[in-house]
Amino acid sequence: MSNENTTAASGHPLFAWTLRLPIIIWQVLFFLGPLLFMVAMSFFLVKNYRMEEAFEFKNWQKMLTRGYFWDSYFLTLGLAALSTVVTSLVAFPAAFALAFKVSPAVRRWALFLLIIPFFTSYLVRIFSWYVILAESGVVNAILAHIGLGPYTMLNTKFGTLVGYMTLTLPLVVVLQTFSLANIDRNLVQAAFNLGCSPFRSVYAVIVPLAKTGLIVAALFCFILSFGDFVSPYYLGGSKPPTLPILIIDTTKSGQQWPRAAVVAVMMMITLITIAFAAITLAYRKRASR
Amino acid sequence: MQKKQSPESPNRRKLLKYGGATVLAAPYISRAWASVTEINMLAWYGHGEADVVAEYEEANNVKFKPKYYAGGDNMLALIAQSPPGTYDLILSDAEFVQQLNAAGYIEEMNPADYPFDDMLHDDFTKFPGHWKDDKLFSMILRGGHLGVSYNTNAVTAEEAQSYACFWKPELEGKVGHFDWHLPNLGMMSLYNGNGPSLWDLDDSKWDKVQETTTSLRPQVGGFFDYGGTFNSLKNGEMLAMCGIGDWITGVLEKDGAPVASVIPKEGGIQFTESYSIGKGSEKADEVKKFIQYMMSPAGQVKSAQMAAYPGFCVTKAGRAKLIEVDGKEAERSHQMDGMPNDPIALINDGRIHYRDIPRQQSLEDWNDYWSEYKNA
Predict the structure, then answer these.
(1) Average pLDDT, chain B
(2) Residue B354 distance to chain A (closest CA, Å)
């Protein structure tokens, strides 16, 4: 079929809308609709464990004037940011090696192996860290052989970070690898030919060229960490609680779903703001000199 | 050459024979299947598991469909959000029965159907909230104690005789909390000397309870759900646990872990679980029969031995049966007359207080403080 035919077909408004429609319907039904309901719910009231439709600001006033809400908010923000930075830095050398230093066959196998952790339940993977990080666990047993420890790793922020990385690291490596592998090798070669050192070629050529993919990978890492309940609860000991734990706590006490909705809406606003900023940064063109 | 057919190998005739038999039998199989009565149960985890109900199911051609919850609030919400008659059988914490009744979620029961003349303690006969205007609405099934739970290698039996052991300097970062404000703050109230009025706190006593609890925060290593509590005690991450009792350490103890629970000198809290018949249930008779079974000696033993978490018998015949068939468990859980920590003796000595909800504050006030405490 000729290119003209393809263009004509895809250019037809009906055809274009047919292609767009499924995702639009999906997003409206399963994202926009629930989101609007959640916002509405944050104004409802609870009486005798039952939600009643209302339009009151009591839940917002109650949650936003509580010190523990803001403590949890900034803790969650900080931990997710830390997870994003650490995971991105840890993932980059691996992604770089997979993109530039190995054969395509090895890269394919490595990417397959990186996907394997997603075959098992995240909760099971988190519980398996108990055996490794416990004071009588594998890490401390190894450290004991060289006269170190034991160190407390479970029920700490370190434990939470390990959990976040369990969730996000394979995904970040995969996304970074795809991004780096798509760089035009001629540009990297040209940098070398013009006398650029290997280290400089990474930060002056490769990173800027892969910027969009690297930022998107970091953004995924932030979103997943920010909303994760399992790691801060089971590896961090809920000490102190993050926003997802606060949501659970709030629903458990008197079934205050509307107050939990306030926390959830605040999380959504934060994520939308950060995602918007990150996407803008990712696609911003460099100013020409 | 013709292949010789083994007598066991399938052939067309056999296929037709068995296939036809299956088709002809299908209506009978489906009828037999349909005659199994399904009972929708709302309960804490474990009550609908095979170790408790399988024998009864087989003998009575019923099948339990359990829906598990965690916490009385959660239970009330699940019922509130379901049409009447959704749950045939409701197992609830005793302190929430009153609210179930006030909301009209449970049916009246006939006291003559249950062994009230065989109760181990008078309190169990007219248990608070279970009766209204002399009418019975819930049947007490079992109980358990909450006190000091500890690792026996880190805390001595003498130290565990007071909640003060939670503040032991060697336990810094090693004291865990079961993540529910009610038992934890109840224990702090007992430690402050509020005794039988531990739930009935005026402003100054409530402030004092918060102050005492806050002073424990530097000792705290984490806040855990059932699984987390279990794991952290088992692997030694936590050496003492506030808010639980034998219902968790009992399971670990059976598994060989060096943990124990005691009722300290300041007193302990009893959790009590009761069965009610859901309002609008069309299987009230079957449910009544099951509750009668659970109140029988055999049912009481099943409940006491429950794999998810053990409990105390509430009938004399149940206790006697437990001693007869599982003396080891009866001894481990002190369910023997004359033992110093016999649950009934502890109630008589005034060292056990039934779990309740705050009288002068709302649950929300307690939860608010709990969230602040967790963030401190």
Answers:
(1) 90
(2) 20
Residues of A whose CB is below 8 A from B219:
none
B262/B349 Cα distance (integer angstroms): 15
Q: Is residue B247 within 8 angstroms of chain A, CB to CB?
A: no
Q: Is the Cβ–Cβ distance between A279 and A211 less than 8 Å?
A: no
Query: Two tokens at A199?
Result: 């280290």
Question: In this structure, what is the dihedral angle of CA atoms B359, A48, A248, B218, given to the nearest 10 degrees?
Answer: -10
Most confident of A10-24, A259-273, B20-34: A259-273
Complex ipTM over 0.85: no
Q: What is the pLDDT of residue A289?
A: 44
Q: Is the entire prediction scored with pTM above 0.90?
A: no
A38 vs B368 pLDDT, higher one: A38
Question: What local confidence, expressed as pLDDT, does residue B367 receive?
Answer: 82
Place of tokens 């880190």: B154
A73-81: Cβ within 8 A, 24+ apart = A73/A243, A73/A266, A75/A240, A75/A242, A76/A226, A76/A242, A76/A243, A76/A244, A76/A267, A77/A226, A77/A270, A79/A157, A79/A160, A79/A161, A79/A164, A79/A225, A79/A232, A79/A242, A80/A164, A80/A222, A80/A225, A80/A226, A81/A222
- The pLDDT of residue B364: 79
Residue A287: predicted pLDDT: 55
**What DSSP letter does each residue of B17-71 carry, written as one string?**
HHHHHHHHHHHHHHHHHHTSEEEEEEEETTTTSHHHHHHHHHHHTEEEEEEEESS
3-class DSSP state of B353: strand
Which helix (H) or strand (E) segment holds residue B296: the answer is none
- Does residue B35 carry a pLDDT above 90? no
User: Left, alpha or beta for A156 (phi > 0: left; psi -120 to 50: alpha)?
Assistant: beta
Cβ contacts from A onto B, under 8 A: 100
Q: What is the pLDDT of residues A123-160, one digit of tens each?
A: 999 999 999 999 889 999 999 999 998 999 999 999 99
Mutate to test the interface with B, among A129, A132, A239, A250 (most CBs of B within 10 A): A239
A249-270 pLDDT per residue, tens? 888 766 788 999 999 999 999 9
Domains of chain A, with CATH numbers?
66-283 (1.10.3720.10)
